[in-house]
Amino acid sequence: MECLKQTIKSKHAQSLFHLPNSFLDYDELEVIIIPIVERKKTKEGNIEAIFNELYEKWRKETRFNSLIGSSSHNCYDEIVNLGMEVVPYIIEKLRKEPSLILMSLIRITGKNPVKDESKGIVKKMAEDWIQWWEAEST
Question: What are the sequence ranges of the domains in the chain?
Answer without folding.
Answer: 35-136
